[in-house]
Amino acid sequence: MNNSIAGLDLAKNVFHVVFFDRHFKEVRKRMLRRNQVLAFFANTPPVLIGMEACSGSSYWGRELIKLGHEVKIIAPQHVKPYVRGNKNDYNDARGIAAAAKIPGMPTVPVKTIEDQDIQAAHRMRTQCIRDRTALCNSMRGLLAEYGIVLARGVSKVRKGIPELLEDPDNALTPFFKEMLARRYEQLVEIDGHIDFYTQKIKQRAKEDDACKRLQTIPGFGPINASAFKSAVGDGSAFSKGRDVSASLGVVPRQHSSGGKDNLLGISKRGDRYLRSLLVHGARSTVRAAANKDDQLSQWINRLRERRGIHKASVALANKMARIGWAVLHNKTTYRASLGAGAMGGDASGGGSEQGL
How many domains does the chain have? Predict the structure, then answer.
């Protein structure tokens, strides 16, 4: 590594790269076609390459690391303040390089191909769930035009549609019933897709050592353990657990001035999907804690009594993120016998029966 920095502006077909020396003086720039990128960097001495987080950034990160370069992937909101002048590709690359040279700049981990597989499975599963929700709402809306109101919820729609199709005395015409039956077939098909992706995720979580260790933490099941692992990786991109919880938006938002701290609600930054999984897993653990007397459950029950179930759930999600980072970073497991936030070499804290 020769202390040089390169800012690489990623795109679908045309890439732009700007190089800077150790004093951050621009030395050269280059436009590259997609099929030229790897060959170009293969003949370039090892440098620190900054890239904006986007689709494809992990792929390029893995390939450039194989060529001996150091890679920093930076979230777009952290790059934007360093882009000067008019909007163009070279200025974007310069801004990326300027952000990459800042000490302590938050970075996005370069995902392994295994983590990317799991993330893709979660994305596909989530899209199917959204499609199912949209389909159920569409059928409920159409039925309302005929004076039939189905209760909210997928299970209510799944149960109610066949009954309506078989009822000869309702207001539905044969023509509409035929179309509704086709929509119901779509619902059954989407249910099958969701089950398929869910089983694939659970199977991978069962085989992955890091996911198995995460599931020793209360509130972590196979779904959110695999999602957490695919997002955080081995934890090396974060210096401490609080950075992980902050990146997921489960820490208080600050509005402080004049030496007076003013803490507001949680910031809700970062991955909304993973944050929702953590909160749902935490909520199930909070409910189960009422019948337990271990140290973590005692902490949960005291907090729930003071602040209510919702704030207790978010506070536990914060703690889960921190413990999850420690489990991944230290390659260890959660041990409830040592206390609310302790980890040890063997799993003795049961958490996989709760959560997602």
Answer: 3
